[in-house]
Structure formats: structure tokens, C-alpha cells
Amino acid sequence: MEGKVFTEEQETLVVKSWGVMKQNAAELSLKFFLKPKARASCHTCESAVQLRKAGKVTVRESTLKRLGGVHFKSGVVDEHYEVTKFALLETIKEALPEMWSPEMKNAWREAYDQSVTAIKSE
């Protein structure tokens, strides 16, 4: 996963959509958590910002460091991450239909995949 460039446009899409979704966080959180194995949207937004600033997701000194340990101890496997990614993308699509586009989907997917890589490496 390293070596992929996370563009400024992708960061803008993730951060802007996250800002809109936070305004309705309670309802969206419920929808997201009712989907199987879903919990990653705020950490994915953090990852998007890191990707643009550093070119990669940094695990040290972030909430992702703690998540790496928790996920490892809990026995989280690759399939869980894929289910969570699907739930995340579906929740965003439902929450922001007027903003949803292939570019936004790719931006969130890339930010999520990079954060998962960082979590798994921890």
C-alpha cells in the first residue's frame, strides 16, 4: 500500500464529507454501528490528513497505535476489515447522497486501506 499517492483532492473530499457527517453524528453512528463489524470512520479521516502531510499513515502518537493493539488482541482478521470498509462506504453513501461520487468513494477507500495497513503493522 505504501507508495500510493493520496492526493490533495482526495484529502479534501474525505475531510469535507466528514465535516458534514459530524453534524449528524448520533444518527449516522447508530446506522454505522448497526452494520456488522463497523467502527472506523473517524480514524479514517485522521488517516486522510496524515496521508497528505506525511505521505503515509503514522501509527505512533495517534489513536491508531492503541487500535492496533486492541485489534490484534481481539483477533481481528482481514475479512473483518473488508466488512467494515463496506459498511463505512455504504454509510457515507447513504448519509451524503448529494456529495457521493466515484472520486469520494475512492478517496475514502484509499484512506481506509492506508489506515488498516498502519493498524495491522502495529
Give an account of the 3D structure:
α3 packs across α6 and α5 packs antiparallel against α6 (102-121). Helix content is 73%, strand content 0%. It has helices spanning 8-22, 25-34, 41-54, 63-74, 78-95, 102-121. The protein has 6 helices and no strands. The chain has a single domain (8-121), classed as Globin-like (Orthogonal Bundle). The longest helix is centred in the C-terminal third of the chain and has 20 residues, at 102-121. It is an all-alpha fold. Residues 5-122 form the Globin domain. It catalyses: Fe(III)-heme b-[protein] + nitric oxide + H2O = Fe(II)-heme b-[protein] + nitrite + 2 H(+). Pfam families: Globin (PF00042). This is Globin domain-containing protein.
